[in-house]
């Protein structure tokens, strides 16, 4: 069930939704720990997706390199393999630029898009004072 179940910001630990909500019930003794856990989970997901993108680049690039080797003297096959290598490099570049743009937009607008837990931690710190 992905609906929020009993979100408490008061005295006890934060209880959220789904699998991550169950993790916060087990490991978050305080609000700060729950938000840190959320940030950690999000970081793991982004890192995993970046790793998958990098692996796709390597696989696609090597497949194109083998196509180039198999093409031999066939000019059309060589050009096709070169284009696939260029497309793989462009895909990797787009992924890197996208992360940079998200960070840049977040910096311009003062929003931590790559660190979504930071505003919540600041709210909790201001509540504690």
How would you summarize what this structure contains?
With about 130 residues, this protein is an all-alpha fold. It has helices at about 20-25, 30-70, 75-110, 120-129.
Explain what the structure shows.
It is built from 4 helices and no strands. It has helices spanning 18-27, 31-71, 75-109, 118-128. The longest helix is centred in the middle third of the chain and has 41 residues, at 31-71. The chain is elongated, with a radius of gyration of 22 Å. The model has no long low-confidence stretch (mean pLDDT 76).
The largest pleated sheet is described as: none
Helix fraction, binned, reads: over 70%
Order of helices and strands: HHHH
Q: Which class do the helix and strand fractions yield?
A: mainly alpha
Which helices and strands occur, and which strands form pairs?
Elements: H1 18-27, H2 31-71, H3 75-109, H4 118-128
Attribute tags:
elongated, mainly alpha, 129 residues, 4 helices
């Amino acid at each position: 069930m992905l609906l929020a179940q009993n979100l408490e910001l008061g005295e006890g630990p934060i209880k959220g939704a789904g699998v991550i909500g169950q993790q916060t019930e087990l490991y978050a003794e305080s609000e700060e720990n729950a938000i840190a856990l959320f940030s950690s989970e999000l970081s793991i997901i982004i890192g995993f997706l970046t790793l998958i993108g990098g692996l796709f680049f390597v696989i696609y690039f090597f497949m194109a390199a083998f196509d180039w080797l198999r093409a031999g003297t066939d000019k059309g096959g060589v050009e096709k393999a070169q284009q696939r290598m260029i497309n793989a490099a462009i895909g990797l570049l787009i992924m890197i630029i996208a992360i940079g743009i998200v960070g840049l937009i977040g910096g311009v607008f003062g929003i931590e898009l790559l660190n979504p837990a930071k505003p919540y931690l600041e709210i909790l710190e201001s509540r504690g004072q």
